[in-house]
Amino acid sequence: MRRGRVWGAGAVGAAGVALALVAGCTGGGGGGGPEPTGTTSGAARSFLTGEPGAAGHVLAVKIDNVPAARPQTGLNDADIVYAIEVEGGLSRLMAVYDSEHLPSAVGPVRSARQTDIQLLAEYDKPALAFSGAQSELLPVLKKSDTLVAVTGTKDFFRNHDRPAPHNEYLHPEAAAEKGGTAKDIGLRFATAVPAGGTAVNTASAKMPAARFSFAWNGSDYRVSMDGKQSPWKADNVIIQHVAVKQSDFHSRTGFVPFSQTVGHGSAQILRNGRSYAATWDRPSETDGTAYTVDGRTLPLQPGHTWIVLEP
Question: Residues of the signal sequence (predicted)?
Fold first, then answer.
């Protein structure tokens, strides 16, 4: 259970506050899109979850997702979890936290990729915690203008009950304070279920050597990976179809994927047991990502979101 949050389709509705559907936000949400309407005057709302609360500092953590790394630690406290293709067609996770809602530990922490730089550019210079990177990529990460690289600090520790390299974890408080303040990244929220869509209780996404499935249980989505149910849950799921090319930073082990999150494409959005065929659009790295249906922004249920970057 996420600290300070109620998981359920009507959690924020019980507070009597709704964020309304926003129309025509096709230019992304990096501060330039329309503002949400229908909020209580003066009420602070998270840009990342639509829930009550002032914006904190943003920390993204790269997390292992091979079977030996499961179950991971701290994923249900994340505002957003991205699933990203890495070498061999496997998946890796990126958990994004607001410093106001941090678990005591996160992990297992693994290495960063070029995809992370472009993806995080829509945030306000967040901290990115990772265990290492390809030798030519590491200095690029450390000099990046779009993120603050955090690796090798005293806040990383080993859990000796697990085998290396799947046993490095992070106490996230100090790392989170290095990140920029949460800003509009294009997401919109409303407790009212949008019109349209199709009633769907299960959906899946895949990478060459990884599978994700999401099952609606009447209050949230339960996450399964590679056919096995996990402890993780989400209020929303976005399966975002992206182009994948060879990274500029190669590996001796073969093809290194770079998932392109600038551009546009199709997406499937799941909320409240319904599926919506959507379009995603992000014109540039500094823009947020708009998710629309027939030109109108599709609002998410206030809460926790998984975004799978499906090739």
Answer: none
